[in-house]
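Figure caption, in words: inputs first, then the predicted bound structure.
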Amino acid sequence: MTAPQVAVETLEVDVAIIGSGGAGLMAAIHALRAGPALRVAILSKGAVGRSGCSIMVQGYNAALGADDSPRLHFEDAVRSGAFLADQELVWALASDAPARVRELENAAGCYFDRTADGSLDLAAFPGQTRNRKVHRGHETGIEVMGRLRDLLFRLGPLELADVRALELLRDERGEAAGVLALDLRRGIPIVVRARAVVVAAGGGAASLYRVATPAREKSGDGVALCYRAGLELRDMEFVQFLSVGLVASGSKVTGVLLEEALRFAGAHLLDGRGERFMARHDPERMERAPRDDIAKAMYAEILAGRGTPFGAVLLDARPIGRTVLETRFADLVARARSAGRDLAGEPVPVAPASHIGIGGVVIDPSSATAIAGLFVAGEDAGGVHGASWQGGNGIAESTVFGARAGEAAAAAAGDRRIQPSSDAAIADAVRLAFAPLTTVDGPSPFTLSAELRELMWERAGLVRDEAGLAAAAARLSELDERVATIAVPGPARANPAWQEALDLRSSVLVARLVVEAARVRRESRGMHTRTDHPERDDRDWLRTVVLRRADDLAAPPTIETRPIVLDRLRPDQAAEVGAATQAAGATRP
Ligand SMILES: Cc1cc2nc3c(=O)[nH]c(=O)nc-3n(C[C@H](O)[C@H](O)[C@H](O)COP(=O)(O)OP(=O)(O)OC[C@H]3O[C@@H](n4cnc5c(N)ncnc54)[C@H](O)[C@@H]3O)c2cc1C
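Bound structure (flavin-adenine dinucleotide present):
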């Protein structure tokens, strides 16, 4: 391999924000409100405000109903996360969400659906005790992100679209000093020096699986950058799967979500022989069993070979009736049609689809991390969801903690003087990033990506055991070595194969961390199910698994478990108010 000679551009700003989903845009807006004279740059791997998953959301949880309160929202989230969430973070989420919704309406100009009396039309995601889903039809994300983009335009940050963060820069004291980025269209590295950095790249553990719902460009970069920089990660073993991802074999449409609400409206789940397999798993509740149990039952059926030849089971929505489907569920009928399926006329193939990575970087309620000047918000952060995520809390998390991160970053940028960062470290990072372009005879990144997704699906998916996880760990070490030998043909500008190779550097690392954490947690809780440790164990495992890099990045992480602080809600208290929630189904506007 010859070392490429690469020209590097530089840019100086006060605040650099990585990512332009809900967290990134809110961080920019709040940083500029707190410090209108600050130079704020948004670096976004995709189009600014139109990439990532925030644009896909259907509903936003906020305690705005007359019978609701932030306390009830908090309790629902803690219970849904099986008591593993950081209760201070959940408290911040539930307390700030109503104000963020009002800001979206009054400052950004979002139109959310209202009832005849003018109040917000609130619906419910599965498992909620109160209707608190704020929405704009089923396209809430489009409304929120479009209006935030308009607001941002008026505030005028520097928008760097199609620019991916490659590495976090640290100064000689180890504090945040900016970002090494890559302009994807021109193939040129940019050193962005900044006095405060917000990482909001949208997580990425959910992208590691065969059937996955997230935006294509999410590959775990934010989490990987923070881990490489030495930050602690928590709860990496928990990856949220939803039950009804459409399977269109061999097509990128695979993973498009049909909604859980279909099950509550009367749809049946069938195995490859046309039998309602939930009779084997939960004969009483059948398709109305809780979302996580349904996903695990589907996964078990598919892995046992009782699914369809293409690794799916079938969702039969015909019992709901064509008229209802084509009116109340018209968007889902259209979605299925895009994969060539008639939802109202035939059973359609579905599988559990990985949806969001629950774990992420350890932050405090202001979104600060252990590195001075570095803040993390949205799906890159850990601790808000515990062991299982509740629908509607994702966009709430991004906007609440994005806003907090923006304000904290503005304050930090005012206070901090950064020291120089190491030129040698920058040169090494550039060399590493450009290596696939000058390597010959290496594997294709697309082949390795497909291998990674199959491996994670089979060995570290919804149901796990030590033997499978150990096998996954060994294969991932091997995959890691092969990623270092990837060869892609040039040029550097606008080269998707090269970007896939860079994605893999992050995603294999994140996969290793998911597997390491999953091996440590010897119990079953929330989205982590171990057949060799099938019970939830509150005596020994009300603890979070915290991972931190060893000096040698290729070595396994150092691992610690820490007790969860239960000072706002304990499991024994929850029993008094929790029973009603379990039966609650989703309601659809
Ligand atoms: C199909 C779908 C439906 C969903 N529905 C809901 C819902 O109804 N309610 C709910 O609460 N949650 C929902 N979620 C979850 C929700 O979308 C996320 O929790 C939340 O939007 C994440 O926001 P974010 O700002 O952290 O990341 P995202 O909105 O995903 O944005 C990530 C940003 O980071 C950028 N990026 C990535 N890597 C880099 C890099 N290396 N350098 C620079 N930029 C980078 C991306 O281009 C993008 O701009 C849904 C998720 C999916 C996939």
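Residues 575-584 have pLDDT under 50 and may be disordered.
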